[in-house]
Amino acid sequence: MNATNEKPGALLAPSDVQGMFDRISRRYDLMNRLMTGGRDVAWRRQAATIAIGAGAERALDVATGTGDLALELSDQGVPDVTGLDFSHEMIVAAEAKRQQQSVEGVTFLQGDAMNMPFPDGSFDALTIAWGLRNLPDYQQGIQEMARVLRPEGRMVILEMTPLQNETLRNAFNLYFHNVVPVIGGVISGDRDAYRYLPDSVGAFPPAEDLAGMMRAANLRNVRYKLVGGGTVALHIGIRN
Ligand SMILES: C[S@@+](CC[C@H](N)C(=O)[O-])C[C@H]1O[C@@H](n2cnc3c(N)ncnc32)[C@H](O)[C@@H]1O
């Protein structure tokens, strides 16, 4: 349940989430690579490929952070990509990366995923990677994303998912709750941010429930695959 009411949503209030990501932006990429052994790059690549499908002209990456998935969509041939995030520091980092890589056709924009500055049906494809878990109301967030997707457009949600097997979950939690906050504290200087991460994953809906939320948001053919030994889920849905 979220920070302010009884709906499934982030454990922290949006202003706290925003401040947290502003603080960890400089070391965010390095921590991702360390925590996942570099697998996060391949999972974003898969997410982009699935979202593009047979082709997309305009794509949106919600909660883009330092922009890796937006840049991946562009790399895979989408001519017009927007990356949106409400953390100013993350957007600054994403734009610096875009310029450093001399990428054209990608625009980074500061904005709230719960109330996006786009007309209905603006995009052919939409992705969100490790962003949904931070939104204050998951169902409303998915609905807002479905709103800006055109009919037949694809939505891909890449997110941590609670391990279903209890033994594996206990083993993973030892690493996640004890090792990650220590490394995160040393690397990013913000141990609390890397305590919030395992806590928020523990409170996140199972993959099947998330699929149900997507269906309730006017998406069809919703399915998902688990990667990362069952710790990460890639959900896909087609906008009706
Ligand atoms: C864990 S990071 C994921 C970044 C990136 N998508 C990636 O693949 O690494 C979560 C991002 O969600 C953003 N975020 C959280 N809530 C948001 C909201 N309401 N609107 C826009 N961005 C949000 C944060 O600022 C942060 O950059």
Structural overview:
With 240 residues, the chain is of the alpha/beta class. The chain has one domain (14-160, 206-239): Vaccinia Virus protein VP39 (Rossmann fold, 3-Layer(aba) Sandwich), CATH 3.40.50. It contains nine helices and seven strands; from the N terminus they run H-H-H-E-H-E-H-E-E-H-E-H-H-H-E-E. The chain has helices at 14-24, 28-36, 39-52, 68-75, 88-100, 138-147, 166-188, 193-202, 207-216; strands at 58-62, 80-85, 106-110, 123-129, 149-160, 219-227, 232-239. The protein has a seven-stranded mixed β-sheet with strand order 3-2-1-4-5-7-6, with helices on both faces. Helix 2 (28-36) runs antiparallel to helix 7 and helix 7 (166-188) runs antiparallel to helix 8 (193-202). The longest helix has 23 residues, at 166-188. The structure holds S-adenosylmethionine. S-adenosylmethionine binds at residues 14, 17, 21, 32, 44, 63-65, 68-69, 85-87, 90, 112-114, 129-131, 134-135. S-adenosylmethionine (SAM) binds at residues 14, 17, 21, 32, 44, 63-65, 68-69, 85-87, 90, 112-114, 129-131, 134-135.
